[in-house]
Amino acid sequence: MDDLVRGDFREDRCPAESYTEVLERDRVPSPDYMRQGPTPDIGTAPVAASRYYDQGFFQKEVEHLWPHVWHWACREEEIPQVGDHVVYEFTGKSFIIVRSAPGEIKALYNSCLHRGRKLAVNGGHKLSFRCPYHGLVWKADGTFQENPFPWDFPQWAGGAPDLPEARVGTWGGFVFINMDPDAPSLEEVLGPLPAHFERYDFENRYIAAHVVKKVRANWKATAEAFMESHHVIGTHPQGLATIGDANSQYDILSEYVDRQFSATAIQSPHLKTQLSEQQILDSYFGGRAVMVGDQPGRMTLPEGMTARAFAAEIARKTLAEQTGQDYSHAGDAEMLDSLLYNVFPHMSFWISMSRNIVYRWRPNGLDPETSLMDIMMLRPVPRDGVRPKPAPVRYMDLDEPMTEAGKELSDMLALVYEQDMVNLPHVQTGLRASGSGTVEFSNYMESRLRYHHQLIDRFIAEGEAK
Ligand code: FES
Ligand SMILES: [Fe+2]
């Protein structure tokens, strides 16, 4: 698949300053690997709208994509003790992700070898899994423990086989699984990502919030709503005073890892009038309660400072108070910007010193027209060094507005997510209603979306060729 990721820097960009130029102006610099990377030209051919709803195409994804890719299934902190487990499911598959020994995690197929009942419906703590149907038992590590009717199972010599397992890998406190024994290793798939995330110490972050939203749209449509900044002007116009949307940076770094960077605390190239730095700062803090002394109020920009440099300074100070760490080395971008790394096909990890958002998208069971989106918020362990318990998962149904999750995500973020979610049912029905029958991705800003479609096609073609 190498030919897809070979390519040169392209010049067909928004004429405003580039993200790399924003980085160069920053008062505290960020690491060099954040500068513009490769974006191969992968064409402008239209994509069939039916890929988002056609049952036949969905079935190909179920068969040739999902069982062959790595999924983050949980965080290690969710299963700290032997016997702790969570259930992770996608496209009709179900796995028990269990701490099977102090230094060992297994992904057991969640299906009784007798007549198929799921062994666990929810996560929890168990040292063995007793099937509620007829009572066969497996230990937490998946090895067979007990068969109440040994005389009736000559095919198993009176016992039963051990539970089958999927592959397990870990990185940054995340537990990943893959059903395919021949798939590339997790390390190969993550490629440059672990090195780029070293400064953010994901292992020592805790789950501050976890929301799972059911969405009336195909999983790709949902994921794609969070993979480009062209939608800011239409969907989040309140953000234009404080985000570099059109001049975001999109890089395809390796076969499975790509990224998008958008600067904040600068104005959008779409705005025709030049805002003052004070206006940008006001807008940046507009949705949040800013404490000036001990009163909420308006921040006054110190003489000669940009809104971006000042906002980064405040973010450093606030975070230092929370964690007791020094952030003087942290770049302005690392304190402020939207910096998302996607791992094909359905995971997104944000770089940030203070708050790392993580996304995961999946089909909702075997329905091509609905999906699940996980939004997890990781934060640094506080200054007392005691890791807070993982926040409980908040499940949100199809028509539940994201604004209901203000407590978990902050009112400002919940509103932004609601703006994204409002589009999606109308994207799904609109795709079905399409007169052209196609989707037209833009050439640069939506190159990652197009690239993911091309990779999905490769998985399908390789699967069908077997
Ligand atoms: S289905 Fe599990 S013991 Fe029968
Ligand atoms: Fe959005």
Defining key terms:
466 residues; alpha+beta; binds FE2/S2 (inorganic) cluster; Rieske Iron-sulfur Protein; binds fe (ii) ion; 8-stranded mixed β-sheet
How does this model look, in words?
The chain is an alpha+beta fold and 466 residues long. It folds into 2 domains: 2-60 and 193-465, Naphthalene 1,2-dioxygenase Alpha Subunit, Chain A, domain 1 (Alpha-Beta Complex), CATH 3.90.380; 71-178, Rieske [2Fe-2S] iron-sulphur domain (Rieske Iron-sulfur Protein). 24% of the residues lie in helices and 27% in strands. The chain has 12 helices and 22 strands. The strands form 5 sheets. An 8-stranded mixed sheet has the order 13-14-17-18-19-20-12-21. A 7-stranded antiparallel sheet has the order 2-11-10-5-4-3-6, with no helix packed on it. The longest helix has 23 residues, at 411-433. The radius of gyration is 24 Å and the shape is globular. The two termini are 17 Å apart. FE2/S2 (inorganic) cluster binds at residues 112, 114-117, 131, 133-136.
